[in-house]
Each structure stands twice: as structure tokens, then as C-alpha cells.
Amino acid sequence: MSFNIAIDGPAGAGKSTVAKRIAKKLGILYLDTGAMYRGVAYYMLNLGVAPDDEAGVCRHLDAIDMNVVYREGEQKVLINGNDVTPFIRTQEIGMAASTVSKIPAVRLKLVELQRIIARHTDCVLDGRDIGSYVLPDADLKIFLTASAEERAKRRMTELEQKGQKDVDYNKILSEIQQRDQQDSTRSFAPLVVAEGAILLDTTRMNIDQVEEHILSLCKF
Ligand code: DC
């Protein structure tokens, strides 16, 4: 039996940073499930299909053969053999992923793949519905959050560090709030604090403190 750590929470809470660190410390895999939804969004946008066009998305969904592979320790999302990872980390794709992820058929397809990976591999998974829907029996469930203002501030710093100029705090904040609203009000597997999850508000914590706290809970 594999063991699985589920880290859920809203956009910009620091899930991926902390999940990566925990996975490294424990010597297990990190599975970024958001990248899978981003991959579908990217694929649909490239075809000219709007992410909120449920019929259109469903028409093309079967043509997607998604694989998650690891190259030099980095997760890559392959769609029909093509690595889409370099193209999916934009704000636009994040929003499109949030929209496309409302479609039940999309979720069912990706959840199936996530469960297969988790069943065979010890891993830390981050997302929105891991503890509540994908792996309700995960060994440890964390709900990582922070105020929307703090998350917008962190996202802004991250973009600035990547060299992006003219980063607009208010725009980032409003996108985060829109994504929170969309992810937590969709009808199928919304973002909720899963039963048995430990809620961690990181508004006043730094990344080292968050990591240490989660590792202290990993006493299996
Ligand atoms: O974590 P992220 O920003 O890469 O996720 C992008 C979007 O994908 C997010 O706004 C909602 C969706 N998502 C989801 O619905 N369920 C997951 N397990 C992961 C992401």
C-alpha cells in the first residue's frame, strides 16, 4: 500500500512550494494535479474551444491521452505525447483551468489518472479536491490557506522575481478572488476543507515554518 499526503487549498496559498519540499524531504513523489487541469485548458484553448463550452470541451476530451512523467525530478504533463508543461504556468491558463475544471467529465478523467498514480506510488498531491474527493482515505490531509490579500502579495513577488514588469496588485487580487469563488462554488467536487483535514492558515507563517509544521504531522 502506498501512502499519500493531500494538500488542498485556494490559489496562491503556497501548496506547490510546500508540497515539493515535503516530497523531497520524505523522498517521495510530488504530484501537481493543477498542472493536469492546466494541460486540458491549454489544449482546448489551442483548438479554439472556450473553457466554459461544456459540449465543445466534452467533444474533444476523448482525444486527450494524458501522461504525467518525471524528467530530472521535474513533473511534465504530456498530452498525446507532447510536453505542454512550458506553456501552462500563466495567469490566463490558471483561470481557464479553473473554468474547465467545473466540467464533471474533465474531473472524472483526471481523477482517474490521479488515483492510479497515488495507488502505486507514495506521494504528496496538491490540488482542490484531493482530501475530499480524490483520496478521502489519504494518510494526511492538509488544507493550506492564507488571506486573499497575502496570497496576492506572494503571487506579485513571485512574478516580479521572474522579471515580469508592471505587475498590478489589484488585478492579481481580483483574479484570486474570482478563482476562489469559482473553485469553491462549482457543483462537482468543489474546494472545501475535507473531513479530517488539518487547517493551516499561513498568512503569518513563512515557508520554513509551514514545512516544519507539516513534517511534524508526518509521523506514520
Ligand atoms: O493549483 P493550480 O492553480 O495549478 O490549479 C489550476 C486550476 O485547476 C484551479 O483553479 C482549479 C483546478 N483544479 C481543480 O479543480 N482540482 C485540482 N485538484 C487541482 C486544480
Describe this entry's structure for a reader.
It holds the Pfam family Cytidylate_kin. This is Cytidylate kinase. Its EC number is 2.7.4.25. It comes from Candidatus Stercoripulliclostridium merdipullorum. It catalyses: dCMP + ATP = dCDP + ADP; CMP + ATP = CDP + ADP. α2 crosses α4 (91-100). It is globular and about 45 Å long. It has a 5-stranded parallel sheet. A 3-stranded antiparallel sheet has the order 3-4-5, with helices on one face. It has 9 helices and 8 strands. It is α/β, with parallel strands linked by helices. It has helices spanning 15-26, 33-47, 54-61, 91-100, 104-120, 130-134, 148-161, 169-185, 207-217; strands spanning 4-8, 29-32, 66-71, 74-79, 82-83, 123-127, 140-145, 198-201. 50% of the residues lie in helices and 17% in strands. β3 and β4 form a beta hairpin. The structure holds 2'-deoxycytidine-5'-monophosphate. The site of 2'-deoxycytidine-5'-monophosphate has 15 residues, from α2, α4 and α8.
